[in-house]
Amino acid sequence: MPLLLSLRKVQKIKKQGYPVEIHKIVTQDNYILTTYRIPYGKNVTNKGAKRSPVLLAHGMSGHSDYFLSLGREHALPYYLVDRGFDVCLHALGVYDFPANVDYIVNKTNQKLFVIGHSQGNTCYFIMTSEKPEYNEKIKIGAVYGPSAMLRYIDYPIAVFLSYIVDTIEVSILLLFV
Q1: The total number of structural domains that make up the chain
Q2: Residues 114 and 157 grouped into a single domain
Protein backbone atom coordinates (compact mmCIF):
# COMPACT_ATOMS: atom_id res chain seq x y z
CA MET A 1 0.00 0.00 0.00
CA PRO A 2 2.69 2.65 0.84
CA LEU A 3 4.24 2.10 -2.61
CA LEU A 4 0.89 2.86 -4.27
CA LEU A 5 0.46 5.96 -2.11
CA SER A 6 3.97 7.07 -3.03
CA LEU A 7 3.34 6.55 -6.72
CA ARG A 8 0.10 8.50 -6.56
CA LYS A 9 1.80 11.42 -4.84
CA VAL A 10 4.63 11.45 -7.39
CA GLN A 11 2.11 11.16 -10.22
CA LYS A 12 0.05 14.04 -8.80
CA ILE A 13 3.09 16.31 -8.67
CA LYS A 14 4.36 15.32 -12.12
CA LYS A 15 0.88 15.69 -13.63
CA GLN A 16 0.90 19.34 -12.53
CA GLY A 17 4.18 19.78 -14.44
CA TYR A 18 6.57 19.90 -11.48
CA PRO A 19 9.74 17.93 -10.80
CA VAL A 20 9.72 15.66 -7.76
CA GLU A 21 12.44 13.82 -5.88
CA ILE A 22 11.97 11.00 -3.35
CA HIS A 23 14.37 11.03 -0.40
CA LYS A 24 14.83 8.29 2.21
CA ILE A 25 15.80 9.62 5.65
CA VAL A 26 16.84 7.39 8.57
CA THR A 27 15.74 8.68 11.98
CA GLN A 28 17.62 8.35 15.27
CA ASP A 29 15.45 5.32 16.12
CA ASN A 30 16.31 3.70 12.73
CA TYR A 31 12.94 4.30 11.12
CA ILE A 32 13.13 5.05 7.40
CA LEU A 33 11.11 8.09 6.32
CA THR A 34 10.12 9.06 2.82
CA THR A 35 10.21 12.78 2.07
CA TYR A 36 9.07 14.25 -1.22
CA ARG A 37 10.90 17.27 -2.59
CA ILE A 38 9.69 19.71 -5.22
CA PRO A 39 13.00 21.50 -5.83
CA TYR A 40 11.83 24.30 -8.13
CA GLY A 41 8.82 25.78 -9.87
CA LYS A 42 7.21 24.84 -13.14
CA ASN A 43 8.56 27.69 -15.28
CA VAL A 44 12.02 28.06 -13.75
CA THR A 45 14.90 28.68 -16.15
CA ASN A 46 17.78 28.39 -13.65
CA LYS A 47 17.12 24.98 -12.12
CA GLY A 48 20.45 24.95 -10.23
CA ALA A 49 19.82 28.21 -8.33
CA LYS A 50 19.90 28.12 -4.53
CA ARG A 51 16.37 28.30 -3.11
CA SER A 52 15.17 28.69 0.47
CA PRO A 53 13.95 25.30 1.74
CA VAL A 54 10.45 24.94 3.21
CA LEU A 55 9.28 21.92 5.23
CA LEU A 56 5.50 21.38 5.21
CA ALA A 57 4.15 19.41 8.18
CA HIS A 58 0.57 18.09 8.00
CA GLY A 59 -1.99 17.87 10.79
CA MET A 60 -3.28 15.04 12.95
CA SER A 61 -4.78 12.14 10.99
CA GLY A 62 -3.51 13.89 7.89
CA HIS A 63 -1.19 13.00 5.08
CA SER A 64 1.18 15.11 3.01
CA ASP A 65 -1.08 14.46 0.01
CA TYR A 66 -3.51 16.94 1.58
CA PHE A 67 -1.13 19.76 0.67
CA LEU A 68 -1.42 18.72 -2.99
CA SER A 69 -5.17 18.14 -3.21
CA LEU A 70 -6.17 21.60 -4.48
CA GLY A 71 -4.05 21.29 -7.62
CA ARG A 72 -1.59 23.72 -9.19
CA GLU A 73 -3.78 26.81 -8.97
CA HIS A 74 -4.50 26.64 -5.23
CA ALA A 75 -2.16 24.21 -3.41
CA LEU A 76 0.49 25.66 -1.09
CA PRO A 77 3.47 23.55 -2.34
CA TYR A 78 2.99 24.72 -5.94
CA TYR A 79 2.46 28.32 -4.83
CA LEU A 80 5.76 28.23 -2.90
CA VAL A 81 7.92 26.56 -5.57
CA ASP A 82 6.59 28.93 -8.22
CA ARG A 83 7.85 31.77 -6.03
CA GLY A 84 11.36 30.39 -5.69
CA PHE A 85 11.21 28.07 -2.68
CA ASP A 86 12.43 24.46 -2.42
CA VAL A 87 9.52 22.50 -0.88
CA CYS A 88 9.63 19.22 1.07
CA LEU A 89 6.59 17.21 2.21
CA HIS A 90 6.79 14.44 4.77
CA ALA A 91 4.86 12.33 7.29
CA LEU A 92 5.18 12.93 11.04
CA GLY A 93 6.45 10.96 14.02
CA VAL A 94 8.45 11.30 17.22
CA TYR A 95 11.91 11.42 15.63
CA ASP A 96 10.75 12.46 12.17
CA PHE A 97 10.85 16.22 12.52
CA PRO A 98 14.49 16.56 13.64
CA ALA A 99 15.58 13.97 11.05
CA ASN A 100 13.85 15.91 8.27
CA VAL A 101 15.29 19.23 9.45
CA ASP A 102 18.82 17.79 9.61
CA TYR A 103 18.48 16.19 6.19
CA ILE A 104 17.15 19.33 4.51
CA VAL A 105 19.71 21.64 6.16
CA ASN A 106 22.56 19.27 5.16
CA LYS A 107 21.21 18.92 1.61
CA THR A 108 20.67 22.66 1.00
CA ASN A 109 23.26 24.20 3.37
CA GLN A 110 20.60 26.70 4.44
CA LYS A 111 18.25 27.37 7.33
CA LEU A 112 14.70 26.42 6.45
CA PHE A 113 11.18 27.71 6.77
CA VAL A 114 8.71 25.42 8.56
CA ILE A 115 5.02 25.65 7.74
CA GLY A 116 2.86 23.42 9.88
CA HIS A 117 -0.77 22.60 10.45
CA SER A 118 -2.32 21.17 13.62
CA GLN A 119 -0.21 18.21 14.82
CA GLY A 120 2.61 19.30 12.50
CA ASN A 121 2.95 22.38 14.70
CA THR A 122 2.94 20.32 17.87
CA CYS A 123 5.86 18.27 16.51
CA TYR A 124 7.64 21.53 15.61
CA PHE A 125 7.04 22.96 19.12
CA ILE A 126 8.29 19.77 20.78
CA MET A 127 11.43 19.68 18.64
CA THR A 128 12.35 23.32 19.26
CA SER A 129 11.67 23.13 23.01
CA GLU A 130 13.24 19.73 23.71
CA LYS A 131 16.15 20.27 21.32
CA PRO A 132 16.76 24.05 21.42
CA GLU A 133 19.75 23.73 19.08
CA TYR A 134 17.22 23.21 16.27
CA ASN A 135 16.08 26.82 16.64
CA GLU A 136 19.36 27.75 14.90
CA LYS A 137 18.37 25.68 11.85
CA ILE A 138 14.99 27.38 11.32
CA LYS A 139 14.51 30.78 9.65
CA ILE A 140 10.82 31.09 10.46
CA GLY A 141 8.18 28.72 11.82
CA ALA A 142 4.65 29.49 10.60
CA VAL A 143 1.93 27.67 12.53
CA TYR A 144 -1.63 27.25 11.25
CA GLY A 145 -4.27 25.72 13.49
CA PRO A 146 -1.80 24.78 16.24
CA SER A 147 -3.00 21.99 18.50
CA ALA A 148 -0.63 22.79 21.35
CA MET A 149 -3.21 24.31 23.71
CA LEU A 150 -6.07 21.92 24.44
CA ARG A 151 -7.79 23.79 27.29
CA TYR A 152 -9.95 25.83 24.91
CA ILE A 153 -11.08 23.08 22.56
CA ASP A 154 -14.81 22.34 22.68
CA TYR A 155 -14.38 18.58 22.37
CA PRO A 156 -15.23 16.70 25.60
CA ILE A 157 -12.41 14.12 25.61
CA ALA A 158 -9.81 16.75 24.66
CA VAL A 159 -11.06 19.10 27.39
CA PHE A 160 -10.93 16.29 29.96
CA LEU A 161 -7.41 15.23 28.92
CA SER A 162 -6.14 18.82 29.01
CA TYR A 163 -7.03 19.02 32.71
CA ILE A 164 -5.32 15.76 33.65
CA VAL A 165 -2.29 15.88 31.34
CA ASP A 166 0.09 16.71 34.21
CA THR A 167 -1.20 13.74 36.23
CA ILE A 168 -0.80 11.44 33.23
CA GLU A 169 2.76 12.66 32.64
CA VAL A 170 3.78 12.08 36.28
CA SER A 171 2.14 8.62 36.24
CA ILE A 172 4.02 7.61 33.11
CA LEU A 173 7.31 8.83 34.57
CA LEU A 174 6.72 6.87 37.78
CA LEU A 175 5.72 3.70 35.93
CA PHE A 176 8.51 3.62 33.35
CA VAL A 177 11.51 5.12 35.13
Answers
A1: 2
A2: no
Read off the pLDDT of residues 64-121 as tens digits, 9 standing for 90 and up.
777 787 888 888 889 999 999 988 876 555 578 899 999 999 999 999 999 988 878 8
Interstrand relation of 138-144 and 52-57 (parallel, antiparallel or unpaired): unpaired
- Considering the domain architecture, whether residues 74 and 139 belong to the same structural domain is answered as yes
Residue 52's identity, in one-letter code, is S
Q: What are 22-48's pLDDT values in tens digits?
A: 999 998 888 888 889 999 998 887 888
Looking at the fold, whether 37 and 106 belong to one and the same domain comes out as yes
**Amino acid identity at 95:** Y
Q: Could you give the dihedral angle defined by the CA atoms of residues 161, 93, 4 and 30, in that order, rounded to the nearest 10 degrees?
A: -140
DSSP string of 67-124, one letter each residue: GGTT-TTT-HHHHHHTTTEEEEEE---TTHHHHHHHHHHHHHSS-EEEEEETHHHHHH
Query: Residues 37, 112: one domain?
Result: yes
- 46 Cβ contact partners less than 8 Å away, ≥ 6 residues apart: none
Q: Are residues 115 and 177 located together in one domain of the fold? A: no
Q: Is the pLDDT of residue 3 over 50?
A: no
